[in-house]
Amino acid sequence: MRMSDVFKLAFKALRDRKLRSLLTILGIMVGSAIILALIASSSGLSAGIQTQVERLGANTLTVSSARQFFAGGGQTTFQLSQQDVNTIRSFQGISDVIPYYSRGATISFGSSSIQGMLIGVETSALFKMYNGLSMYSGSLPDSYDPSAAAVGYAIAFPTGSSDQLTLNQMVSISLGGSTGSLVFLVKGILSQYGSVMFSNIDDTVFISLQSAELLLKTQYFSGLYVITNTPEDVTTVQQKIESYYGTQVRVMSAGAMLSSIESITSQMTVFLGSIGGVSLFVAAVGITNTMFVSVMERTREIGILKALGYRPRQIMGMFLSEAILSGVLGGVGGTILGYALSFIIGGALPMSGGFGPPGQTRSSTAFTPVFTPELIAFSLLFPIGVAVLAGLYPAWRASRMNAVVALKYE
Amino acid sequence: MGSLALVDRESPSGAGLAVQTIGVTKVYRVGHIDYPALRGVSLKIAKGELVSIVGPSGSGKSTLLNLIGALDAPTSGRVIVDGIDLRKLNQDKLALLRNLRIGFVYQTFNLIQRLTAIENVEMPLIARALPEKTRKSRSLKMLSAVGLGRLANKRPTELSGGEQQRVAIARALVTQPTIVLGDEPTGNVDSKTTREVLNHIVQVNKTFGTTFVLVTHNPEVSNMTHRMITLKDGLIEKEQYLQRMDSYTGS
After folding, report:
1. What is the CATH class of B47-70+89-249?
2. Quick one: closest CA in B to A318, which residue?
3. Domain residues for A73?
């Protein structure tokens, strides 16, 4: 038999039982799509988190008070003050300690309104905190000017809006609660940067530390950026801070976060991948079931094929090719579906809230799924392999059927 | 597909014979009870002969036909088809023999319903891996020969019983077999169609010298064969020569 004939006949057989074939293929598709989407999303998530964390810099630590809650200034047991800045500055290996205030904020001008953040920080330290950040236009606000602000790129140039912010224009910032809204004059616009430690710099308004202290009516910092002399100092400094403050503060470094994130995401990949595996297994059972029913129904046809001189191996090949064809269609369909699905997951599951340092959790950052050629090949070929295995036994049974009995089958 | 040349021919005893059975028995076992269907049948059918097998239900007619058609193996005895002892063939060789030498026509037509008439006729040629063009032209020629050229792309459900049986005949003949086996080939068609089908059989038999073995209940069928073999309780009860072969084949 020619290969082309085998598949033509298989296609006709599948087409003859459209609904059943479609449902079988759908089962395979879902399995393949889930594997592809979940693995691509989780590696995308993992890659996204890594970039963000790596931006923090190898010689940077963040210190925040433990158990601090937000929106409306929830109670905490411990709060960071200028005294703590001085204490940490006195440790060995420290290059700088940069305190900051941060609040979730609604930033608006004209018809544009963005959910973002307000950060108060010594503006001269801004470029030390964010490696590679630069001015798009204008300059950083002076520390003594309480109405001056620098805004992130996405605030100045909001997507999907024709309104654009220019220098010396006013922005209104609402912190929610009873604070009312504050108005700032835009003195500088920052270049496009992205997210660091789960907060999107492009959605942030920066004001000077002094202004923030004044406007927020607080002396307690949201957190401290600690910069060590060398990356090697990070571990010892972290230990020193932790032993000094105990559980009152949370100290995070890029390296420590990376390793814990890696272990979480790799576990997640295995977990999500096995969900996909289970669904493909279910699909395999479905194929086997469909094939058995098909072999039963076509018993007489198998008898005819035998009478016409088809060898057992040819009959097995004919039935197996129906399973393979289902696998191919399911694999291709599943890969396309999974590709689309992973972007939906990527959009619906933004990295927001809960992970980052307190006070920086308002803004969210979507991630892009990662498709390696191996993953695509896997999601195309694995369903075919599963289909072959699932179809093997029913096809073998078909080939072994007794011709005389099969021809009498009603 | 390979060739049957690999198989030893029985000679010289088998020369000129399409079918020979020697002391053939067949016992079906259901549970612990044996049902003897054939109890020692020996017969010879010459090439070009048109033979009918008649007898009451359960006399072993269909069983004998299945043994000759290499669809089933006898419990004991030998079946020799076109000089080839079937005992010596494995499953693949038996399939090859059926494909190359034997055509089947059934009472219930046994067409594949999802395929068109011409696709059904093509089926035995697909097993031979013939190119599609060759297959199509041979199948169409054969369908035209049975008067169905214009219905080649119809499915069995769109055809009458008689038309379906002619498709089945075209499928049996498209391989140019040595022998065609018919199990009640006119059992499901009306008397007019029966005559049509018989005319085709007689014509093919005359023109190509194809051997026909027809199991039938219908005297109209058996009356136009060369020889009528009557089975009873798994044994040959009598054989009647009705017509001389050469009177048929002309010459």
Report:
1. alpha beta
2. B127
3. 60-229
